[in-house]
Specification:
By secondary structure, the chain is α/β, with parallel strands linked by helices. It folds into 2 domains: about 210 residues, Glycogen Phosphorylase B (Rossmann fold, 3-Layer(aba) Sandwich); about 190 residues, Rossmann fold (3-Layer(aba) Sandwich), CATH 3.40.50.2000. It contains 16 helices and 13 strands. The strands form 2 sheets. The chain has a 7-stranded mixed beta sheet with strand order 1-3-2-4-5-6-7, sandwiched between helices. The chain has a 6-stranded parallel beta sheet with strand order 10-9-8-11-12-13, sandwiched between helices. The two termini are about 30 Å apart. It holds the Pfam family TreT_GT1. It is an enzyme of class 2 (transferase). It comes from Natronococcus occultus SP4.
Length: about 425
């Protein structure tokens, strides 16, 4: 494993998003953790929502006086191929899990757990990739509190994969999930429910007029789409569970109905997701003859900001979804979202109030809601305003910081 350096953050910078009670709670929880050492472990420092959250959560925790470190696992490509298969299995894919896959997973997680040299009072393991470290960590550091943060939706998991993951849970003192149904699927009535959150001060989420003017990717003029024509955007990894081909089909139906709409599919290529390149190729081949479909990869954060603000409507057509922070990011910019009624998406979208919810397999309904919003400026404005209010009330970083500090205090004091 190797440590990740993070840029400094100051809680005082979030004053406009902090009421006095939350500020006081954060300070009290941080004071209670004085002298304790905390570590977070995941598999990548760049790409994906987990890394993005940790780049904010870790330095903010440090700013309020908590001694916290962040480590990324060292692993060969074969490990990530195995963990991507495990990820897919937990979301319902039935590809067999082989003995070789199990051994690769155990070996790499064991090696990483053995490589941890520092002693910590609490260690937060993020997602299934790092969970396998728990038995070795428990043996090496019996006094440490171990927490597992499951960011994905296991409610439709293939049984062999669910059983494999559950075999590592005994040493875990507390599981953290995004939805009560996830706790039920893991048969863990004591699991804590914590919703992810966005950082309103990053280049991805702050107003574009507050972003340095010379920052690369910060102007709509740098992108190939026509900002004067209707635009639909989906921001997500190139992943079969995000159903990019379903998004393309919905877009085509909107076009066939007479709209001059364009489509952007934008996503990163995280180090721990080897499947993304192949899915990107499939979508590129499917849309090669359409000059109004744009596939954009590995954009800077400010580029995602530009896309979500330029979009007339965003779509999140996930078939399975742990939470989808891209929904909150987009709602924050007052852009309405058509999302599927799966996982954490309905925690963020209230149908007809700040966006629309559709069944994940209903391409016709997706196209209908997109067309409805594209045709009605007033409707987009009303839903967009309510969307920003939803995020401000429920899905901003200071709330997440408070909840993590509370869980850490509770876990260490047990």
């Amino acid at each position: 494993m190797h440590p990740v350096e993070t840029a400094a953050r100051r809680l005082s910078a979030y004053d406009q998003y902090l009421d006095p009670q939350r500020r006081s709670e954060i300070r009290e929880r941080a004071d209670a953790l004085a002298g304790e050492r905390i570590a977070h472990v995941n598999t990548t420092a760049d790409g994906g929502g987990v890394a993005e959250i940790l780049h904010a959560l870790v330095p903010l925790s440090a700013d309020v006086g908590v001694d916290v470190d962040w480590y990324v696992m060292d692993a060969p490509d074969g490990f990530y191929e195995v963990t991507k298969t495990i990820h897919n299995g937990l979301q319902g894919d039935h590809t067999p899990i082989t003995g070789e896959m199990r051994e690769t997973y155990r070996r790499v997680t064991r090696e990483n757990a053995t490589a941890l040299e520092e002693r910590y009072d609490a260690i937060v393991l993020h997602d299934p990739q790092s969970l396998g470290m728990a038995p070795v960590l428990a043996d090496r550091f019996p006094d440490a509190t171990l927490l597992w943060r499951c960011h994905i939706d296991p409610t439709n998991a293939a049984q062999p994969y669910l059983e494999f993951v559950e075999s590592f849970l005994d040493p875990i003192d507390r599981t953290i999930v995004s939805h009560p149904a996830y706790a039920e699927a893991l048969d863990d009535a004591d699991a804590a429910i914590v919703h992810p959150a966005i950082d309103p001060l990053t280049e991805k989420n702050r107003p574009l007029e507050e972003v340095p003017a010379d920052l690369e990717g910060g102007s709509p003029d740098e992108y190939p789409f026509d900002d004067d024509r209707p635009l639909v955007v989906q921001v997500s990894r190139f992943d079969p569970w995000k159903d990019p081909l379903g998004v393309v089909e919905a877009y085509r139906r909107v076009r066939e109905a007479g709209s001059d709409v364009q489509l952007v599919l934008a996503g990163g290529m995280p180090d721990d997701d080897p499947e993304g390149i192949e899915i990107h190729r499939e979508v590129a081949a499917e849309t090669a003859d359409d000059d109004d479909v744009y596939l954009l990869t590995d954009l800077p954060d400010v580029g995602i900001n530009v896309l979500q603000r330029c979009a007339d409507v965003a779509v999140q057509k996930s078939l399975r979804e742990g939470f989808a922070l891209t929904v909150s990011e987009t709602l924050w910019k007052e852009t309405p979202v058509v999302g599927t009624n799966v996982g954490g998406i309905p925690l963020q979208i209230e149908d007809g109030e700040n966006g629309y919810l559709v069944d994940p397999d209903d391409i016709g309904a997706t196209a209908d809601r997109l067309a409805r919003l594209l045709a009605d400026d007033g409707l987009r404005a009303r839903l967009g305003k309510r969307g920003r209010e939803t995020v401000r009330d429920r899905f901003l970083l200071p709330r997440l910081l408070e909840e993590y500090l509370t869980l850490l205090e509770e876990g260490i004091s047990r």
